[in-house]
Amino acid sequence: MPPLKVLIDARYCREQRTGIGTYSRNLLQALDETLAGHQNAIQLYAILLENKKNPAPGFNFRNIETITTHVDYRSHPQNEVWLNFTLPGLITQTQADIYHNLAYSLPWRKKIPCKKLVSIHDLIMYEMHGNYPKLFETYLKWMIRCSIKRADKIIVFSEYVRQALLKRFNLQPYCIEKIPHGVSPLFTPLQEERKDEIRKQLNLPETYIFSVGSTEPRKNLATLFKAFRQLKKEHSLPHTLIIALSDKLTRRSPLQQLVESLGLKDEVNFVNVQSTEMMRDYYNCAELFVFPSRNEGFGLPVLEAMASGVPVLCSNIAPLTEIVGDCAERFEYDDYITLAKKMYNLIIDESKRRELARCGLERAQHFNWHQSAQLYLNLYRSLA
Fold first, then answer.
1. Residues above pLDDT 70, as percent of the chain
2. Phi and psi of 69, rounded to 5°?
3. Comparing C-alpha atoms, which of 367, 131, 193 is closest to residue 375?
4. Which domains does the chain have, with CATH numbers?
5. Which positions ≥6 away from 96 have C-beta within 8 Å?
6. Cross-strand pairs, 3
7. How far apart are CA 21 and CA 79, in angstroms?
8. Which whole-number Å values give the CA distances from 139 to 17, 80, 100, 126, in the listed order?
9. Given a cut of 80, is residue 251 above it in pLDDT?
10. Which of 324, 325, 328, 351 is nearest to 339 (CA)?
11. Starting at the edge strand that comes first in sequence, how are the strands of the sheet with 268-271 ordered?
12. How would residue 40 be classed by pLDDT, with cut points 50, 70 and 90?
């Protein structure tokens, strides 16, 4: 019997500091390792993006064949032309039984000669207006409606998104498969000696609070800045606030202007983290990790922080509570006064920080990319 052939659209691997990029890279690597015992049953092909300036990401796959394209999924209408007119040729060329797009997009032409899967990360474009430019938001809604209509199976990563899809699009439960993300094994607690070396290498302050976000309103960094200002106002603490941004911040950015208006220009540092190892180092050396997001489809930074052994404070929204359980302090995302109090209580209570770090580390072990990869392979087989 010939092997089941799956064509995975992984053009998102280039996104170095986004959830979609992290998901795509980790899933492919886990699938490649998990396939070691299934070579005769399943053949995977991965479509990767390359351009003239930058070659395709360097993966040393043993069990996945790669196909490259110059068409960026962010280029419109080139991406739509590629999906509907070039992709069918790749499906025929590889004799794929299944096409799996890792982020939202499926071709809308009817005659696509295979089963189709799509990963839906969130429904932020429906739930939070103003998070994207209006025209792009309209496009995303249209693309998701088309993809849901065409998909043989939809993959989500949290129960929250699963329920939101069922309700908004009146889907049957069997249409959706929930497969939680794992966490990269690179995220792990480091020894104190290694942390001292990292502080010197990265020129880090002795004590700081760490967060991960972007300039998107849903990341809610404004609430964190207000809470940090309240903390500094009420207590004489040496802490700095460090933010790892996934996009660029300009001097005219509302976030930059807010930092300056709050008098925090010298106490808030924005950093551009270039690698998973560097992100792990920032987590490890922090006294606290705070994640104030208003809306998430999953919440990888919270999981990465717990796996790195840092105590977590996060907003009390459904996807994050699914991850942290009772292993993090939580707050209502707009309540900066309570956030400031909880940050202070953790700063002065070392035993509480240790307990949260221990509990979070144990909980993070339940999120494993190899287990997730096996669920993906099982799903592919079920659609054959």
1. 97
2. -145, 155
3. 367
4. 4-182+368-383 (3.40.50.2000), 192-364 (3.40.50.2000)
5. 5, 6, 7, 45, 90, 114
6. none
7. 18
8. 23, 11, 20, 12
9. no
10. 328
11. 268-271, 240-245, 208-213, 288-291, 312-315, 329-331
12. confident
* Residue-wise DSSP of 42-61: EEEEEEEE--SSSPPP----
pLDDT, tens digit (0-9, with 9 covering 90-100), for 59-115: 789 999 999 999 999 888 999 999 999 999 999 999 999 999 999 999 987 678 899
Lowest mean pLDDT among 10-19, 118-127, 187-196, 371-380: 10-19
Contact by Cβ (8 Å): 316, 295: no
2: pLDDT confidence band, cut at 50, 70 and 90? confident
**Residue 339, CA distances (Å) to 221, 231, 239, 286, 316 in order:** 12, 9, 15, 17, 11
Q: Are 268 and 241 in contact (CB under 8 A)?
A: yes
Number of residues in the chain: 384
CA 32 to each of CA 18, 35, 41, 47, 247: distance values in angstroms, whole numbers, following the listed order: 21, 5, 14, 14, 30
| Long-range residue pairs from 86-92, CB within 8 A, at least 24 positions apart, any chain | 87/9, 87/112, 88/112, 88/113, 90/7, 90/47, 91/7
pLDDT at 52: 58
Task: Quote the pTM value.
Answer: 0.93
Token code pair at residue 189: 């607690």
Task: Count the helices and strands in the chain (H runs, E runs).
Answer: 15, 13
